Amino acid sequence: MHLQLGEASTVVVSSPEVASREEEAAQAVAGLARAAAAARSAPVNLSRLVYEWTSSVTARAAFGGKTGEDQAEFFTIADEILREAAGFSLADVFPSRRWLHRICGIEATLVDIRRRLDRVLDNIISDHRAKRTRGSDDDDGCSTGTAKDLIDVLLKLQEDGQLDFPLVLQDIFVGGTETSSTTVEWAMSELLRDEKTLKKAQSEVRRVFGSTGIVEEARLGELKYLKLVLKEVLRLRPTAPLLLPRQNSERCEIDGYDVPANTRVLINVWAMGRDPKYWVQPDEFIPERFLDSSLDYKGTNYEFIPFGAGRRMCPGMAFGMANVELQLANLLYHFDWELPENEGSFEDLDMSETFGVTVKRKHDLCLIPVSYLPCLAPT
């Protein structure tokens, strides 16, 4: 896993648990195959499936092994945080009126969530510390008796005084799971509406992986067209259209505008990605616009910064995109997709948005999976 934690160097967690993305993918595919075989006309909620898939991958990379009681509660609390952050409160309109937070009840709710979150994180971290104490430490300060996961590496960074531990965990999970799953959801939606683009992406995936029945993460780099598709999804459907709020510590002037110190600044990457000054047919889904282009989303091209830029850009970009690529490749390789009966055609697919922590589909994406390889379907 690649993470940029503020000024700390990039951390690479090389463990079997991170590699288990493929195992989680196999389990998700098997579940879809069973659904496809059980009832040909029964739709599955792809939005929910992808979210749970992403949560499982992230949990195993961070905690190691299967999800325990504390880890399950952690994700329940993470869902609550997302709901509260996405909701509306009168106190948000008048942030300086602290008494509104108490009257609206939001303060008590957030205090309770934080108390429960701290307790769960303390349990998880204490468990990892105990395992490290029982085992002999290697050069990285992680136990050699167990596979290293994200918490092991974060513990080492905390010991070196480089990390505010609980906040990093909260940010990675609450932000990373929602944004990654939403990106896959929008990618599938856009592809299904564009039959020509869908066929190109699907043909590439099936050509690269052949009839093996396995999408190998090590070969995702061969999916050149799929990478164009994902770039276009990030441009047209950035999951965090205003990024995260920033605050300048000093007064500054930008393009003639005076920005006082301690001003909350929002970066509208949604508008930047649709600016006709930089993009031809900006409202159209055209992956080919990135063909033979050096334009990338890693923070150096400011007309295209879905993950932000500079020292404060998304710390889990590489890990998140690896998950997104693997999930999308599996969905395209293993299945053809149909709409439920009486839902019309894919050209008329409802693309309405709802704004919360991320910009998601207003309605879940419910589809009928049709197994591409007959051997996938259980007998």
From TrEMBL:
<dbReference type="GO" id="GO:0020037">
    <property type="term" value="F:heme binding"/>
</dbReference>
<keyword id="KW-0812">Transmembrane</keyword>
<keyword id="KW-1133">Transmembrane helix</keyword>
<keyword id="KW-0560">Oxidoreductase</keyword>
<dbReference type="InterPro" id="IPR017972">
    <property type="entry name" value="Cyt_P450_CS"/>
</dbReference>
<dbReference type="InterPro" id="IPR036396">
    <property type="entry name" value="Cyt_P450_sf"/>
</dbReference>
<dbReference type="GO" id="GO:0004497">
    <property type="term" value="F:monooxygenase activity"/>
</dbReference>
<keyword id="KW-0479">Metal-binding</keyword>
<keyword id="KW-0349">Heme</keyword>
<dbReference type="GO" id="GO:0016020">
    <property type="term" value="C:membrane"/>
</dbReference>
<comment type="similarity">
    <text>Belongs to the cytochrome P450 family.</text>
</comment>
<keyword id="KW-0472">Membrane</keyword>
<feature type="binding site" description="axial binding residue">
    <location>
        <position position="314"/>
    </location>
    <ligand>
        <name>heme</name>
    </ligand>
</feature>
<keyword id="KW-0408">Iron</keyword>
<dbReference type="GO" id="GO:0005506">
    <property type="term" value="F:iron ion binding"/>
</dbReference>
<keyword id="KW-0503">Monooxygenase</keyword>
<dbReference type="InterPro" id="IPR002401">
    <property type="entry name" value="Cyt_P450_E_grp-I"/>
</dbReference>
<dbReference type="InterPro" id="IPR052306">
    <property type="entry name" value="CYP450_71D"/>
</dbReference>
<dbReference type="InterPro" id="IPR001128">
    <property type="entry name" value="Cyt_P450"/>
</dbReference>
<protein>
    <submittedName>
        <fullName>Uncharacterized protein</fullName>
    </submittedName>
</protein>
<dbReference type="Pfam" id="PF00067">
    <property type="entry name" value="p450"/>
</dbReference>
<dbReference type="GO" id="GO:0016705">
    <property type="term" value="F:oxidoreductase activity, acting on paired donors, with incorporation or reduction of molecular oxygen"/>
</dbReference>
